[in-house]
From TrEMBL, chain A:
<dbReference type="InterPro" id="IPR009014">
    <property type="entry name" value="Transketo_C/PFOR_II"/>
</dbReference>
<feature type="domain" description="Transketolase-like pyrimidine-binding">
    <location>
        <begin position="11"/>
        <end position="186"/>
    </location>
</feature>
<dbReference type="Pfam" id="PF02780">
    <property type="entry name" value="Transketolase_C"/>
</dbReference>
<dbReference type="Pfam" id="PF02779">
    <property type="entry name" value="Transket_pyr"/>
</dbReference>
<dbReference type="InterPro" id="IPR029061">
    <property type="entry name" value="THDP-binding"/>
</dbReference>
<dbReference type="InterPro" id="IPR005475">
    <property type="entry name" value="Transketolase-like_Pyr-bd"/>
</dbReference>
<protein>
    <submittedName>
        <fullName>Alpha-ketoacid dehydrogenase subunit beta</fullName>
    </submittedName>
</protein>
<dbReference type="InterPro" id="IPR033248">
    <property type="entry name" value="Transketolase_C"/>
</dbReference>
<keyword id="KW-0560">Oxidoreductase</keyword>
<keyword id="KW-0786">Thiamine pyrophosphate</keyword>
<dbReference type="GO" id="GO:0016491">
    <property type="term" value="F:oxidoreductase activity"/>
</dbReference>
Length: 332, 355
């Protein structure tokens, strides 16, 4: 982690995203922001607020309503000298662009033996818990971790959001940058002004503990921390790890923790089957199988579409469900 | 290049602009339209006020677009299919959707997606333009089954930028599907003005590329919309294939109740525009010009509309609580073991039993 000496401001996660964009746009004229409503409206979540005034319509571009067009054009710009940061208004509306990402953004480097590459960042708000209309709440990161050729990043706090966004823009390959809507304004945190990066591929040990490893990302990190806090009173110490990068996973940090604790709880709000949790189990299996003292527990969303808002709380993992899982691995 | 004039039967002052078209309007039809417009406007305003009171979730208002929705949906017949977006409740209600259910939809209840028995009304499309190919398919099915039923599909100006718009039109055109593509051009897709959405002068002209008829109609003129949609539906039923209709409208309010339109739209413009384009006012002026207007009748219509809407709100609020089982039970015809297991464990936990 490289941090320049700088002023630290209290920002929300969404403000940290804006700050990251502004920092990189000031530094590199190749960085452009594109998407639906990102200009004059400043984005439906205000993530690009003020950028059009500062950098003009040539660099903050309101596009037609066309995800495939946005990503496809972004690919063309990226392979010809620009650093596009494109916004999908919600991750649940990225599907029309799937083709462009899966068959082009992710493979151009391979198909040209490195002659062309796509240094593009795709930002996308995601996740349930804010009473959004249907489909807006999808958490489909695993569709992208399954794609060879794109990195998947998911910050849970303002500091990481800015640092990871800058690292993503600097990354020479495509990055899906997932922004939890539930985390957007839930807390403020210290964010240094100016440029700093948080390494892609590096998980963060948020709380140290010897007894149980809890692995989570995005909005689930808050819940994992709460559950850990409650068990601390019973003298059970959970190590809470914010995975932060879903592809590639941080093998070292995760395996070291599991080898220390021998017990694992994975928390994610995405569906269970084929979720990133499955990869984490596989990673633990490969690196730390003999350290395990209990089968790994997963607390996830169910294998059902994220329900309409009246029932969405029944879908998202809760502190209670996490506590049950902790209990299960502890008493095995 | 082919140009597309905006068809208008009754102008903003309620005067006849197109003799031939207007000749088909009579007092009964005009009063019926007034009544329908009033009902959906009352619905829309109530929904906004309920949302502000926290009794309804985020809502997508349509005030200003009632003429387009009511006029077009009035042209449908039993057996037809209607594919709406999240903003087309006026069309759905006109075609016979249950008003309490439409309210329920905006309360985050999946039950709101379910139209009354026998009504082919699809749940609102939330992703933009994805419903166009569905309408084409449903219409083709009717054709291949040998019925004279047709589909109508609603979408905004922004939707014409999505691939699905083009794919839906192209399929319909190639297979001569009995479908009416009904565009409401309210000139904004959230904050993006149509001038940034496309370089084409009109949406109607996009029909040319697909070799189908295109019609541009004044969306605030409920009569023109009604008769022009009827024509398109007749063509469809006669096996002549799809039509693209562009209804030129203006939405007075926000994109949704979660949106702040002052950031990108001059609100004074909307207020001024209302004077010119308000579809309800236009029918009122027409009725007055024709000598059909009656204050007492109008007051009665308003009282009726308010009563219907109030009753629907009560029904919505008295609706049984949502069933948690529903999120598990309707993913497949019979749940897979994963879903079954997740359901059992979750219900056990809800009952306070340890899984
Ligand atoms: C595929 C997709 N992308 C983005 C969105 C987010 N979104 C919802 S409504 C909207 C604007 C739609 O504009 P238009 O088609 O003109 O219809 P209007 O809302 O004006 O009726 C956008 C961008 C979405 N719902 N689906």
């Amino acid at each position: 982690m490289k941090t320049a000496v700088a002023n630290v401001q209290k920002l929300s996660l969404v403000q940290a995203v804006t700050d990251g964009l502004r920092t990189m746009m000031s530094e590199h004229k190749e960085v452009i922001v594109m998407g639906e409503d990102v200009g004059q409206n400043g984005g439906v979540f205000r993530a690009t607020e003020g950028l059009i005034e500062e950098f003009g319509e040539q660099r903050v571009i309101d596009t037609p309503l066309s995800e495939s067009g946005i990503i496809g054009t972004g690919i063309g710009l990226a392979l010809n000298g620009f650093l596009p940061v494109v916004e999908m208004q919600f991750l649940g509306f990225i599907y029309p662009a799937f083709e462009q990402i899966m068959t082009h953004a992710t493979r151009i480097r391979m198909r040209t033996l490195g002659k062309y590459h796509v240094p593009m960042v795709i930002r996308a708000p995601y996740g349930a818990g804010i009473r959004a209309p249907e489909i807006h709440s999808d958490s489909v990161e695993a569709l992208f971790t399954h794609m060879p050729g794109i990195k998947v990043v998911c910050p849970s706090n303002p500091y990481d959001a800015k640092g990871l966004l800058i690292a993503s823009i600097e990354d020479p390959d495509p990055v899906l940058f997932m922004e939890s809507m539930r985390c957007y304004r839930s807390t403020k945190g210290g964010v240094p002004s100016g440029k700093y990066t948080v390494d892609i591929g590096k998980a963060n040990v948020l709380k140290e503990g010897e007894d149980i490893t809890i692995l989570a990302w995005g909005a689930m990190v808050m819940l994992a921390e709460k559950a850990a806090e409650e068990y601390k009173k019973q003298d059970i110490h959970c190590e809470v790890i914010d995975i932060r990068t879903l592809y590639p996973l941080d093998k070292k940090t995760i395996s070291e923790s599991v080898q220390k604790t021998g017990r694992v709880v994975i928390v994610h709000e995405a569906h269970s089957t084929g979720g990133v949790g499955t990869d984490l189990i596989s990673l633990v299996n490969d690196t730390s199988f003999l350290s395990l003292k209990a089968p790994i527990e997963r607390v996830t969303g169910f294998d059902v579409p994220v329900p309409f808002s009246a029932l969405e709380d029944h879908y998202i993992p809760t502190v209670d469900r996490i506590k049950k899982a902790i209990n299960k691995v502890w008493t095995f | 290049m082919e140009t597309f004039e905006t068809i208008c039967y009754i102008d903003e002052n309620g005067n006849v602009r197109n003799e031939e078209g207007a000749a088909r309007i009579n007092e009964k039809l005009a009063k019926e339209m007034y009544e329908k417009l009033l009902l959906v406007r009352t619905f829309d305003r109530k929904a906004i006020s309920l949302q502000r009171q926290g009794r309804l979730g985020t809502y997508a208002p349509f005030e200003g677009q009632e003429g387009a929705q009511v006029g077009s949906a009035s042209a449908l017949k039993e057996g037809d299919w209607l594919f709406p977006t999240y903003r087309d409740h006026a069309a759905s209600i006109t075609f016979g959707h249950s008003i309490p259910r439409v309210f329920l939809y905006w309360n985050g209840r999946v039950e709101g997606c379910v139209a009354p028995e026998g009504k082919h009304i699809f749940p609102p499309a939330v992703p933009i333009a994805t419903q166009l190919p569905h309408a084409t398919g449903a219409a083709l099915a009717e054709k291949w089954k040998g019925t004279d039923n047709a589909s109508i599909v609603y979408f905004g100006d922004g939707a014409t930028s999505e691939g699905d718009f083009h794919e839906g039109l192209n399929f319909a055109s190639v297979f001569k599907a009995p479908v009416v593509f009904f565009n409401q051009n309210n000139q904004y897709a959230i904050s993006v003005h149509i001038s940034k959405q496309m370089n084409s002068e009109t949406i109607a002209q996009k029909s040319v590329a697909y070799g189908i008829p295109g019609v541009r109609v004044d969306g605030s003129d409920v009569f023109a919309v009604y008769f022009e949609t009827q024509k398109a539906l007749e063509r469809a039923r006669n096996g002549e294939g799809p039509t693209l209709i562009e209804a030129v409208t203006w939405r007075f309010g926000a994109h949704t109740t979660a949106d702040d339109p002052t950031k990108y739209r001059n609100q004074d413009e909307s207020i001024q525009k209302r004077e010119q384009i308000d579809p309800l006012l236009r029918v009122e002026r027409y009725l007055k010009n024709q000598g059909y207007w009656d204050d007492e009748w109008a007051a009665e219509m308003q009282a009726n509309a308010s009563a219907v809407i109030e009753e629907a709100v009560e029904e919505m609020e008295a609706f049984p609580k949502p069933k948690v089982e529903d999120i598990f039970d309707h993913v497949f015809a019979s749940p897979t073991w994963t879903i079954q297991q997740q359901k059992e464990e979750y219900l056990q936990q809800m009952r306070g039993e340890d899984a």
